[in-house]
TrEMBL record:
Oxidoreductase as UniProt keyword: yes
PANTHER family (alphabetical): PEPTIDE METHIONINE SULFOXIDE REDUCTASE, PEPTIDE METHIONINE SULFOXIDE REDUCTASE MSRA 2
NCBIfam families assigned to the protein according to its UniProt record, in alphabetical order: msrA
Catalytic activity line of the entry: L-methionyl-[protein] + [thioredoxin]-disulfide + H2O = L-methionyl-(S)-S-oxide-[protein] + [thioredoxin]-dithiol; [thioredoxin]-disulfide + L-methionine + H2O = L-methionine (S)-S-oxide + [thioredoxin]-dithiol
Gene: msrA
Active site, UniProt feature: 73
Name of the featured protein: Peptide methionine sulfoxide reductase MsrA
């Protein structure tokens, strides 16, 4: 298969990088200049207040639940939730667009309506949807950045929550309003909340990318700090051994 150039996803700070898909589904990142490892793009996490109420919890809740979130490159988002207790699976994929454009090369154009997303299946008796959203706003990404995160820009990197029911919708909208009223962030929250119309798993070479490529400069700069912040800010939810997609073959 001929190599094809893919949109930029490399270190910040003016380093010129070219991401290239290669035969077998690998991704080669070529950089003309690199940041020192000490200048981590993800920065420090911010422990935001918990939701004032969570209508998705209660004694009547049974069985696993799902929610889909988007917060920049799905490699780091997936890695964070794979380390959360009660999460049964965290699958990288695409949401917000049509099925026929749900593949990496098309989504990377920024014109498909899709966002790089992660579908989280979780046990609500161990971790609630409200807890997952608190982690989302605390360590996963900066919700004040519109259509970008760190070095990545485009609508496919937007901040979004795709809900799977009316209670999740109410939770997400009320929580954002709560954080806005409290002035939690210095800038307005840009996170969009919409019902999930479809989720399409990403290509296999994107799954478990954080674990499969621990020496990747992109991972070290942008994503490893997120997992470290999860451990620091949410010790009661952090688990050392991640729940990988490779451990759950049926991840559609």
């Amino acid at each position: 298969m001929a190599a094809s150039d893919l949109p930029f996803r490399g270190p910040p700070g003016g380093a010129h990088c070219n991401r290239r898909q290669i035969a077998g589904g690998g991704i080669l990142v070529l950089c003309a200049a690199l940041l020192p490892l000490g200048s981590a793009a993800a920065g420090a996490g911010r422990l935001v207040p918990p939701p004032a109420g969570d209508p998705t919890s209660g004694a009547d809740v049974s069985g696993p639940q799902t929610i889909v979130v988007s917060g920049g490159c799905f490699w780091g988002v997936q890695a964070v939730y794979q380390h959360v207790k009660g999460v049964e699976s965290a699958v990288s994929g695409y949401a917000g667009g049509a099925p026929d454009t749900a593949h990496y090369e098309a989504v990377s154009s920024g014109r498909t309506g899709h966002a790089e997303s992660v579908k989280i299946t979780f046990d609500p008796h161990v971790v609630r949807a409200g807890d997952l959203l608190r982690i989302f706003f605390s360590v996963v990404h900066d919700p004040t950045q519109r259509d970008r995160q760190g070095p990545d820009s485009g609508t496919q990197y937007r901040s979004a929550i795709f809900t799977t029911g009316d209670k999740q919708m109410a939770l997400a909208k009320n929580y954002i309003e709560q954080l806005e009223r409290a002035g939690t962030f210095n800038q307005p929250i840009t996170t969009r909340v919409e019902p999930l119309s479809g989720f399409y798993p990403a290509e296999s070479y994107h799954q478990d990318y954080f674990v499969m490529h621990p020496g990747s400069l992109y991972i070290m700069i942008n994503d490893r700090p997120k997992v470290e912040n999860l451990k620091l800010l949410f010790p009661n939810f952090y688990r050392a051994k991640p729940k990988l997609v490779g451990d759950t073959p049926n991840h559609s």
